[in-house]
Structure to design on (325 residues):
């Protein structure tokens, strides 16, 4: 119910609409002829995973300058939204506040190790494609399930401009504490800078891998500066500092420094490692992805108590260990 004034000119039409019941989907929306402006709305393909969408909403204003409220029920969960847009010349900025008590973010992002999550998100975006997209995001995630573990609170704040993403991530939980600063480039040659401090992480409880002592916790600082993330031509530096393994019975083990330098050309790959326990220089033709698998195989062969755990582990039991890794 409501009123629409200004048709057939959709860009200058004023909408005052209350929708009591609406059922649609991503593909329904894309199939409709809504005019050039609406067709340029930055709605990503992953929205299609929501399936059928049932919605109650109120929309007031122009397409380029509006306020809206919506209650949305999807196949992945329910969301309450408050949205708006404002135009400045040819640029339109969209803002949204979103709340959900239960939502399957893992399916939406195609990440099977992420389970159902409760979240609150504030986001702002402008642009019509990845090249000119500018965005800000603040998210507070609670009841987060990662690899079968529930986390009390994860906080993320990030910005994106010119295909560059900068973000801060903070995890506070009795299983793990983490503070990470990330810069990531979405250019053709993807790059990553990561500075992370982690404390009292138990890899066994987190379903990551099993050491000989399942009570072992790990703390330290990791800095990664990778110019090229292509595993066949990896370039960059990795530094782990003040790495502490706290074991049962007070048998702590410390590594003050572990540095790895990786470089690649069309004909040669190079890896140099400097640490208190190992110095290594390796030059040849190989790819780092295959090298990582070889290292995992060696660890499995010569350290029988070390096991990677499966992604779908839910309980810390012997059956959760992937013996065929």
């Amino acid at each position: 119910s409501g009123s629409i004034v200004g048709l057939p000119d959709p860009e200058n039409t004023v909408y005052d609409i209350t929708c009591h019941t609406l059922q649609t989907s991503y593909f329904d929306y894309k199939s409709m002829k809504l005019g050039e402006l609406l067709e340029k709305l930055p709605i990503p393909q992953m929205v299609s995973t929501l399936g059928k969408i049932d919605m109650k909403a109120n929309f007031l204003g122009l397409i380029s300058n509006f306020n809206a409220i919506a209650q949305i029920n999807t196949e992945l969960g329910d969301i309450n939204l408050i949205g708006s847009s404002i135009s400045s010349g040819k640029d339109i900025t969209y803002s949204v506040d979103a709340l959900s008590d239960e939502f399957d973010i893992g399916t939406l992002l195609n990440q099977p190790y992420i389970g159902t999550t409760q979240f609150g998100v504030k986001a702002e975006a402008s642009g019509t494609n990845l090249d000119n997209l500018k965005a800000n995001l603040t998210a507070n995630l609670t009841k987060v399930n990662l690899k079968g573990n529930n986390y009390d609170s994860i906080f993320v704040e990030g910005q994106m401009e010119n295909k560059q993403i900068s973000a801060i991530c903070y995890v506070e939980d009795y299983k793990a504490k983490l503070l990470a600063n990330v810069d990531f480039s979405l250019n053709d040659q993807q790059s990553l800078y990561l500075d992370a401090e982690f404390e009292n992480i138990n890899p066994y409880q987190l379903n990551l891998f099993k050491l000989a002592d399942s009570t072992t916790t790990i703390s330290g600082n990791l800095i990664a500066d990778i110019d090229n993330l292509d595993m066949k031509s990896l370039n960059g530096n990795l530094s782990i500092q003040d790495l502490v393994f706290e074991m049962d019975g007070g048998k702590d083990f410390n590594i003050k420094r572990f540095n790895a330098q990786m470089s690649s050309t069309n004909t040669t790959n190079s890896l140099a490692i400097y640490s208190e326990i190992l110095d290594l220089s390796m030059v040849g033709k190989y790819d780092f992805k295959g090298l990582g698998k070889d290292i995992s195989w060696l660890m499995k062969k010569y350290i029988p108590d070390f096991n990677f755990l499966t992604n779908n582990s839910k309980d810390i039991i012997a059956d959760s260990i992937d013996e065929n890794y």
Remarks:
- The longest strand covers residues 91-103.
